[in-house]
Amino acid sequence: GPPLYLAELSPQQRQQAWENGLRLARGVNTLILDHHLLRYKAGLRWLDRLASATGRRVLCAADFMDHPRCLLEAHRVQLYKEMPVPEGWHEAYANGKADTSSFRVYTGTHERKFHNLTMPMSGIILE
After folding, report:
1. Are residues 83 and 106 in contact, defined by beta-carbon separation less than 8 angstroms?
2. What is the tens place of the pLDDT at every residue in 37-47?
3. Between the CA of residue 91 and those of 32, 42, 87, 95, 96, what are the distances in Å?
4. 33 three-state secondary structure
């Protein structure tokens, strides 16, 4: 999705992103937009507005996988305050010596089963 969270985007760039979204959504039955678009809370409204404007299924990845929407990037500052990352955790994780279990308990996702989905990673899935 477009990086609409960036303050330096001009009104023209925002309009172009909207027009691109309209064009993409109208060209497929289901459009999955995620990543940059959901780095801010208003991204969900943009996504839902695009679905309404086109009458198509416009989803984020969580919607597609039937999981709750969880905007971690949009809440990053708050999450780091509530659950600070211990010194050295990233390196330990990279080396297989730490995991995300405490975060999964914190978010209530520790009991959720994640499906091994096989799908193209091009960003757009055509039905």
Report:
1. yes
2. 888 888 899 99
3. 32, 33, 9, 6, 9
4. coil
Cα gap 92→97, rounded to integer Å = 5
The number of angstroms, rounded, from the C-alpha of 11 to the middle of its chain's C-alpha atoms is 23
Residue with the two structure tokens 């979204």:
21
State the burial class of residue 43 (Cβ atoms within 10 Å of its Cβ: 0-12, 13-18, 19+). buried
- Output the pTM of the full model: 0.69
Going from N- to C-terminal start, the domains of the chain cover 1-67
- For residue 22, give every residue at least 6 positions away whose Cβ sits within 8 Å of its Cβ, in sequence order, or none: 50, 53, 54
SS3 57: strand
Three-state DSSP at 71 gives coil
